[in-house]
Design brief:
7 helices; globular; Nitrilase/N-carbamoyl-D-aminoacid amidohydrolase; 6-stranded mixed sheet; alpha/beta
């Protein structure tokens, strides 16, 4: 299968509507690709906390309208990154959207781990509470493949990815708005999640600077052995990579680490 990661530059001088139109045009150019991935919170900026409430939208709001039409026109599966979702009860979530080649909303994922500790996203948004996978049906000569969904800060929590693996995930998709000052962690953690779960990792970041925070860029695709198949630079860029989902099963069969896990161990004596 062919996958494209669209590393979008988020410029505070560009309106969200303008960026939606521009990104939709980029998605339309990906005809012939099986899966397109966008970054985290690209309509508003992952660190533009003061804009979250004003830019919040329902799941099937203006961002969905723009990119679902583009996915339908290009006939691609689209992981549309994430939006600031305003739920029916008024709470905000960092919510990813997965859209079919027919332009239909197939699945959503509300980010479980919110960044900021005692400020920012951690205080402004509610946490998701469910692991989410999506099965992409077989296409052409290729088999079906199961995506596991995570977002940005989730990358620091290996237990989430182990849960996705146990649920059948073969491709771990991680949209992000990762800061440049911690870019070394971004690359390290993406490779670690691939190695420990023997799965592909598609890690799609933003470029540019928003809310005064320089973004890492350097989106990357990692194979089940931890090898980086492709990596972007710091600016807006499109990565397109050929993936073989069968490599996941082959890797797990030839080097069966996952079957050697020991679960439910007792805590140390005295605790």
């Amino acid at each position: 299968m062919r996958a494209s990661l669209l590393q979008i530059a988020v410029d505070p001088d560009e309106s969200a509507d303008s960026r939606r139109r521009r990104v939709a045009a980029l998605v339309r150019e990906r005809r012939g690709v099986d899966l397109v991935v966008l970054p985290e919170l690209w309509p508003v900026g992952a660190f533009a906390y003061e804009s979250f409430a004003a830019e919040a939208e329902p799941v099937q709001g203006p961002t969905f309208a723009a990119v679902s039409a583009a996915a339908r026109d290009a006939a691609v599966w689209l992981h549309a990154g994430s939006v600031v979702e305003r739920a029916a009860d008024g709470r905000l979530y960092n919510t990813s959207l997965v859209i079919s080649p027919a332009g239909e909303l197939v699945r959503t994922y509300r980010k479980i781990h919110r960044f900021g500790f005692d400020k920012g996203e951690a205080t402004l948004m509610a946490a998701g509470d469910a692991l989410v996978t999506v099965e992409l049906p077989a296409s052409g000569a290729g088999p079906s493949v199961t995506l596991g969904l995570a977002t940005c800060y989730d990358l620091r929590f290996p237990e989430l990815f182990r849960g996705l693996t146990d649920a059948g995930a073969e491709l771990l998709v991680v949209p992000a708005g990762w800061p440049e000052r911690r870019r070394a962690h971004w690359t390290l953690l993406a490779r670690a999640r691939a190695v420990e779960n023997q799965a592909y990792v598609l890690a799609c970041a933003t470029a540019g600077t928003h809310a005064g925070v320089e973004q890492s860029g350097h989106s990357l695709v990692v194979d089940p052995w931890g090898e980086v198949l492709a990596e972007a630079g710091p600016g807006e860029e499109v990565l397109t990579v050929e993936l073989d989902p069968a490599t996941v099963a082959t890797t797990r069969e030839r080097f069966p680490v996952l079957r050697d896990r020991r679960l439910g161990l007792a805590p140390p004596a005295g605790l």
